[in-house]
């Protein structure tokens, strides 16, 4: 990726309610002059609390907010879902799409992720598309095939390629499923290899714009391994689950960036 600082994104999953979200920023430290781009993805119901907490701590200009999922329809009889415009109105600028828990716990398909990325771009928000192989796929030597299929399902759509080609922002997160929440981290070399495959496909599909897409690594990132992972080739930042729940640990990861 050309220019800019590393991206440090925290996915709280189904943790930290409105009250804890309000308190979280009081423990967050962002070093003066840090070039890191910091993003937090709380549960949608905690977004307003986190936003208020960031304002109280004077950090709202340093931390971008996002949601962990959206539905691709705008409104209607879709119990339990959140639309892109609702997420935007609540202060989200980014949306995680296709996180492995959405794919594997909730049965989201590649086609669903493409519809969601299109809806996010249509609504003027920034998608963060998550891709990654499971352990069986890795052991069968299918990493490249799986992650390229997940990426290509999205890039195959002209409705998506057109805004990306004309400058809409897009982030990609390589998150091997076997590394998420397991304490097993990909080696920096494994992460770089997967990121290089994704990068060359981005460039093939989007031309020079493909070089500007930040590719984050996710999977058991913690304050002790974040620095090494972020210095690996093609790793433009990290997507952090468990270790983003503690403001002190998350601050150490920001420091490592
Ligand atoms: C995630 O939720 O995207 C993630 C990578 O989780 P963890 O850091 O806990 O493995």
Written description of the protein model:
The chain has 257 residues and is of the alpha/beta class. The protein has one domain: Aldolase class I (TIM Barrel, Alpha-Beta Barrel), CATH 3.20.20. The chain has eleven helices and eight strands. It has helices at 18-23, 47-56, 84-89, 100-104, 110-122, 135-139, 143-155, 158-165, 188-206, 226-231, 247-256; strands at 7-11, 37-41, 63-67, 94-97, 126-131, 171-174, 215-218, 237-240. Strands 1-2-3-4-5-6-7-8 form an eight-stranded parallel barrel, surrounded by five helices. Helix 3 (84-89) links the parallel strand 3 and strand 4. Helix 5 (110-122) packs across helix 7 (143-155) and helix 7 (143-155) runs parallel beside helix 9 (188-206). It is globular. The structure holds phosphoenolpyruvate. Phosphoenolpyruvate (PEP) binds at residues 11, 13, 175, 180-181, 218-221, 239-243.
List keywords for this structure.
alpha/beta, TIM Barrel, 11 helices, globular, 257 residues, 8-stranded parallel β-barrel
